[in-house]
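Residues determine shape. We examine one folded chain.
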Amino acid sequence: MNAASLHSSVQSQSVSQVALNVFSALLEARTGQQIAAYRSWRIDTALKPLLRDRGLATLDQLVTLLLEGHDAAVGDQIVDALVNQETSFFRDAPVFDLIVEAVAAVEAEGRRARIWCAGCSTGQEPLSLAMLFAERAEGGKAMPEIVATDVSDAATARARAGRYTQFEIQRGLPIRRMMRWFDADGNDWVAKPELGKLIAVRRHNLVAERPPAGQFDVILCRNVLLYLSAQMKSDVFARFAGAMRGGGTLVLGAGETVIGQTRMFEPSRRLRGFYERVPVPAAERAVA
């Protein structure tokens, strides 16, 4: 939305509503994520710290700063603030047990498994996987390759740093693992270097960029598709399918499904709650 269209919108809407619309449009344009009208309160809540850091009093002043275009960083900062980064260590713990089963099936074929955590937020999910498989590797098992991505620069920076507050470290992480894999640093806890090096963290936009290189055996994308339009979900599923080996496993959030969304995946018969890549007929592969 440019300044001219913004000014014309003011005639029929309150200025504060225009501000909400601008921020919602920016988020969708950058990430594909949508904020439902009934959840517009989250915009005000999420942007308050940015207003404080910028020395601004209102969201309308932030809109003006954005539309003036003199500060390229402000758009990135708004998007980083608005992206939902809710996460925790070992979130929905039974899911991780099933991921171990999926990886074991790959290893039974004589291959090293590759895992992609898409929408990894601040890193708790890939670090949970790294801890789980590093402990398993101590018993002689192979360590899978773990790639973690997120659209937010701020989130991926935190994931690389592996630094968490006392509140964050206690969410889902048993004390035994906290002491084994993290060091205290003031009021924070920092992942040990040997843990962090097990994960390749990259910034990546699910709706606008090609997947990371190579084929994956397991793709986790939990509670991200909830915020996308039907068309963007379809596009993301197609990208996942193209990035997955035959028989690969897709892990979504508890409130997400492939049913009615795509024909490229179907519910797994082996792993309850997970999905598998539908085999592509030889004739279709030849055409492609």
